[in-house]
Amino acid sequence: MKKNIFYAQSGGVTPVINATAAGLIDGYKSKKTNFGKFYVGLNGIAGALNEELIDIKNEKVSELNKLKHTPGGAFGSCRIKLKDSHKNQEEFNRIAEVFKAHNIGYFFYNGGGDSQDTTLKLSSFFKKSNLDIKCIGLPKTIDNDLPITENCPGFGTVAKYIATSTYEASLDVKSMSNSSTKVFLLEVMGRHAGWIAAAAGVLKSSTNAFPHIILFPERVFNEKAFLKKVSDSVKKDAYCVVVTSEGIKYSNNEFVSAGTSRDSFGHAHLGGVAPKLSQMIQNKLKLKVHWAVSDYLQRASRHIGSSVDVKQAYEIGKKSINYAKNGITDVMVTIKKGKTKAYGWEIGYTNLKNVANKEKVMPNSFISKDGFGITNPCKKYILNLIKGEDYPPFKNGVPDYAQLELKTIKKKLKKFKV
User: Fold this and answer.
1) Range(s) for CATH 3.40.50.460 in the chain?
2) Rounded to whole angstroms, how far apart are CA atoms 287 and 285?
3) Active site residue 143
4) pLDDT in tens, 383-401
């Protein structure tokens, strides 16, 4: 009997995670003689634990065809990090039971570093349990912080959105600076890596002063130096635009915006650094400040998709079917830089051990000497990823995104108690 596929989406979603799903589905359809059914876990790995599986053949083809240009996680995502199997054997046994009950032989998990860790743990457990289940991780993160891969699907589109939003907001504040707002602050995601904030740096040129300041998690936040830079920028240009990563830290390694609560992965909840910086400026410099937090808007920004990003996300899904067909397992699919001088890329893979629970921060060579901007190599790197537009189709003036039914198949096992 042909083995079935199980695919799931995990963690914070991206503008192009569904493009990877589309590539995987299209790849499956082209190689259907090698596989059985294609199941998707409802809400990530929770779909396996709860035996909530979606058979894609029950979804309308017309809606599946919209996945490539639809943001969010069309099948539902989750923030569940499995502990080691010897500490959490009940959940691992449950997943194995569900996979055996539904003849799963291929596991594709679409997520970031924590999700690759889950894929690695499950693969190890399946081997110890003598279960022949091929495990392949599909990269996804707007933070662009997975190692080995040249870049991460999702980052290019978010970088394009942040650069565009910063550009538009900068023109706004510049036009009002004579008698109104002097400083604009934009807070973007990025816990330990400043890739997203760096994207705004592609705007700066001999004709554009903005953004005047970029704050990176890779650099210690110095309040005195920051305020001086703001003051100097306002004196010179009459206004100042600041883009800050949510994860900037003081010299004692504490987040400027850290809260007391934590998510299910054990990470401190961040967000709110923009109003804190705003308060500093108002209290010390007495300048009028406006701030904004891009938050979910940045990672759902499919309306202004990068064509490179969409193509890469799609090809990752499609190529992974070939890897599974050829028996490749325990890997994460990657993007590799082309060998020509002109920008090019191809799909490859690396062992899951090389990426699970690991982060890639910005190299020193990508951050300017004063710590408030990016270098030309960084600018070139980001420009390669944001060039080209991939707009979704519009209907009645708004994007026409996929609307899936998400009906799960009949369960074969008893309800699992967490």
Assistant:
1) 155-298+367-389
2) 5
3) yes
4) 999 999 999 999 999 999 9
